[in-house]
Amino acid sequence: MNIPLNHLCPEIIMIVAACIVALLGVAKSDSVRRSAQWISLISLILAFIAGWRIGMVDAGSAWPLASFCTYDTLLASGVGILLVLLSWDMPFAMDPAKSDQTFRGEYFAMMLVSLAGVSMMAKVDNLIWLFIALELVSIPTYIMVATGRGNPTAQEAGIKYFFLGSLSAAIYLFGFSYLYGFSGSTEFSKIAAAFAASPQVPYVAIIGLLMVVIGIAYKIAAVPLHYYAPDVYQGTATPVTAFLSFAPKAAGFIALILVFNLTGWRLSHGAARAVPDLLMVMAVLSMTIGNVLALLQRNIKRMLAYSSISHSGYMLVGLAVGPLLISHSTTNGISAMLFYLGAYSIMTVGAFAVLVYLQGKLDAAEDLDDIAGIASEHPLAAACMAVCMLSLIGMPFTVGFLGKLFIVQAAFSSGHGVLAVIVMINAAIAAAYYLSVITSMYLRDPWTPFTVRQPGTIQFSAAIAAALVVLLGIFPSVLMSISRYSGSEVTKMVVMHDPRRPALTKTASTDAASSNASIHLAARVP
Amino acid sequence: MTQSHLILPMMLAIPLIGAALIFMIKPGNTQRRGRGLGILAFCFALIPSLMGVILLMRFNYAKGGVWQQQFVYPWLPQFHVNFSFGVDAISLWLLMLTLLVTPAAILDAVGKIQHRQNEFFAWMLVSYACMIGVFISHDVLLFYLFFEFSLIPTFFILGIWGHSERRKAAVKFFLYAFAGSVLLLASLIYLALVHQEKFGTFSFALADLIRAGQSLSAAQQGIVFLGLLIGFAIKVPLFPVHTWMPLAITESPTPGSVMIALVKLGAYGLLRFAIPMLPLAAVRFTPWLAVLCVISILYGGLISWVQRDMKKLIAYSVLSHLGLCILALLALTMTGLTGCVLVMISSGLLAAAMLMVMGMIYRRYRTRNLLEISGLARRLPVLGFFAVFFFMGTAALPGLIGFISEIISLVGTYVSGSAGHGGFLGPAYAIPAALGMILGALYMLYWVAHVIFGPLVETTPDTDTIHESHAQAVVQDLSLREWLVLSPLALAVLFLGLYPAPVLNSLQPAIGKIRHEVLAAVQENTASSMALKTSTNPGKHLVGAVHNSGIVGLVTPIAGGSNVTVALRLPARLAR
């Protein structure tokens, strides 16, 4: 990678911490092994701070994707903190029914490596590195899925996830080879130059792009490569499910943005239309199938699996709309998508944190009946869950509302009104099953009262997530500005690589979006 | 705009602070603690009402069409979305209605909630804040936020403290309203983008969206209007999508049903947003919508005629009144629009009062079945008086607000479309609507005659479990608290019925503005097949309408210098 070493500081911290944790994890003494979570937590906090500092220094520098990288690092380490907190006791030490009660540090090592992969994703500038980053995210998750829980369903989930994951890796790697064949290089700058030089996007490249999209669709659990998601999400331990709903998805979306950056986003003409068309079809199918199937579920983890499929659909809308359309005040598709990614990560991790918390008894709290009436006994947990569910529905004053707002706005402003309406109709369908969780918690009588003896960190992470959902819903400026800056950086890639548009003079203004004000909404179909 | 007035944001903040505070107090098991929580909530609800009095004194009635007491604070500056509050005459009076009734509803619930009192009163206050927020929002996105958020408190109040079918009712209520409002949101975003495209800025300010909407062609307006219409029609509710409302009102505890019946968000949204933003589409859809309204009126009337459940009776009468409200709105005459706002006020006031009376009867007899109790005037003379009073108000007894609002709405609809009035409806719609109102009078009178003045029949609930002493205690007449709850509402019903001039006069400029916007746009755009003559002086319309309609025998100027007239003959016939 052709970037200064200090920019990789967050990833280095995570990887080093991962090595330490992996070593400590095999120690004999339980107390030494248990230092693993603390080390992971501290390293992620350090990585977060480092990412923040680098972002501050980098603002307005020549680095073309500075905000985008900062966003990625902050997202990976920030959500990573929540994930460490909620998997504090991995695997469940108090579960008397299981023989495998020992606390193992290596889980956290896997997690840190995977998060380092997510964090590195935006910084890569080479197809090889891109592949390495994607695998860095994926391979630890295979292990986590299989070993997170001692029962056979976890093994089944692990096998399923591993084989299909390898297959998808093969597909996008094959796609990369086409891109290489087209441009003769694996370096992003050269591939981009090759795209810019060719008047039409050639078929070889289109086939490559399509394969990349299909391969990565597995990572983001988009229809039609979503079949594994419900089984894997349900089968594995809940903290791992929470991790799966975040890390591969974030990595996949960022990778897709990088790959489309190569093309200069010249995908709206000729045969290249196939790519955005595919994205749109996948978006519509993911939203609709995910939501409709989620309606039928009684198992909350399975329901959240389908919900994560549908949320991938919403984000794909942003991606399909693309960065081409930006003006002074509205978001473009990419910034809307990045905002949604952040919002989705926080609210879905919050929901899983509550589920982890409620699993005080064996594998309870997986079914809607299990959480009946918990509001009276576990008011804080129920409130956190309710906030996250309302945010996933898209109620006002939560971050989920703003996410949907920006996505719909981006879709409308690029002339995809039908897509926007489909998003909204899906939001209405989704409300039904999210509401059933709230109904079960608040409106039903307790089924079997169970006491929860869990480390306080789990509830803490749920509370942080819920608080963030509300705070970012009311004061979204932090998340909004960083996603907008990132989006406008991606837009600059368009400008630089598209010969049909005059290159914009670089302004010293800190508001990156304002420099793009001259690109006006073209060809808007009402 | 230059000066920021803090009164409106404070009105919004105080119930929210109260809600947070009350939520944190553990209810304990004692009845006393719950009662204390209720009183505390009542105090927090009363403060905005007292501020409402200040607002009434500060408001410049001569400029009722101008947004006053504005407060602007940027929220999402990148999107030009502001916390922008203000009131004009329409929102002022609807706000006053909320400020009057909600504290009464909270006071009514004090001591009557058996479990999780802190949550209950906290949700009531949140709901209150949402209602205030809806009426004071000047920014359309802000309106939408409150509009949508108000689902949550109602969902919990209905779902936790409701009657036996509460879960089904709560979920149905939420899903109906949410499904409608997502399309509403999509339409609003689209309009904001249209504004950006045509006028340069992305904005959700009301005036901007009206400008954007009116700049669209008729076909585009039609699509956007459908989105808005679905959201608002479900909320109103109108006939085919009304089914959530009777269920929600019936299953909710009394304060919850009061909140549902009180606030006419759907009608307000149509009046304030949908019609002015998309006048061409509104005019095109008018005949269809008007038919739905008439169906609502007749259907509501017929159902409640045969209804034996007290709360359902009210729910269907609300349906029928709201049909009239929207019908008068669609008439687009000055008279009609005034009637529309007045029906919102009167129906909110009367339905809330009746629901509370029903709640008081239910608490005494544990039944909502009209056939199980009768002759209550002998046992409970004061409650009987209030019941008769409010029911007469609903049956449009002259001198009460129900009469004024209904007659103005009907006249407004009747003259609509005739020369000199503009509008697109006419007698063909007004006459069935009037029939519906006769039905209303019929069932109300039947009910009053039966329950209040019939032979004394009482049921005591669960006679096996309740001792004789309890049974005696149950059927006492109104307590002091119940007096305090009902008397302000009764006074308002009487006062506005006898002297509606201040409300009517201050409404004229605001309504004239909306009407002018709509008719000007329509006149510009539609073919000459619809003969439109808008008058520049909206104030004359009311008098003219009443004089020209030919159904008015006796015209009585109520206030000196006021242009408000009241017709007595027709409603006398109606009320018979």
Number of helices of chain B: 24
Number of strands of chain B: 4
Sequence stretches where pLDDT stays below 50 over 5 or more residues of chain A: 497-526
* Run of helices and strands of chain B: HHEEHHHHHHHHHHHHHHHHHHHHHEEH
Largest interface: A-B, 41 and 39 residues
Number of helices, counting only DSSP H or I runs of 4 residues or more of chain A: 20
Physical arrangement of strands within the biggest beta sheet of chain B: 1-2
The number of domains of chain B is 1
Roughly how many Å is the radius of gyration of chain B? 23 Å
Can you tell me the overall shape of chain B?
Answer: globular
Fold blueprint:
The complex is a heterodimer of chains A (526) and B (576).
Chain A: H1 9-24, H2 30-33, H3 35-58, H4 66-86, H5 106-121, H6 127-147, H7 152-183, H8 188-197, H9 203-219, H10 228-235, H11 238-262, H12 274-295, H13 300-321, H14 333-358, H15 374-377, H16 379-393, H17 399-413, H18 417-443, H19 456-474, H20 477-497
Helix pairs in contact in A: 1-3, 1-5, 3-4, 3-5, 4-5, 4-11, 4-14, 4-19, 4-20, 5-6, 5-11, 6-7, 6-11, 7-8, 7-9, 7-10, 9-11, 9-12, 10-13, 11-13, 11-14, 12-13, 12-18, 13-14, 13-17, 13-18, 14-16, 14-17, 14-19, 14-20, 16-18, 16-19, 17-18, 17-19
Chain B: H1 7-24, H2 31-58, E1 68-76, E2 81-87, H3 89-109, H4 117-136, H5 140-149, H6 151-161, H7 166-199, H8 206-214, H9 218-235, H10 244-251, H11 254-262, H12 265-277, H13 279-305, H14 310-331, H15 334-365, H16 376-379, H17 381-394, H18 401-415, H19 427-451, H20 468-474, H21 480-498, H22 501-525, H23 539-548, E3 555-557, E4 565-567, H24 569-575
Antiparallel strand pairs in B: 1-2, 3-4
Helix pairs in contact in B: 1-2, 1-4, 2-3, 2-4, 3-4, 3-11, 3-15, 3-21, 4-5, 4-6, 5-7, 6-7, 7-8, 7-9, 7-10, 9-12, 9-13, 10-11, 10-14, 11-15, 12-13, 12-22, 13-14, 13-19, 14-15, 14-18, 14-19, 15-17, 15-18, 15-21, 15-22, 17-19, 18-19, 18-21, 18-23
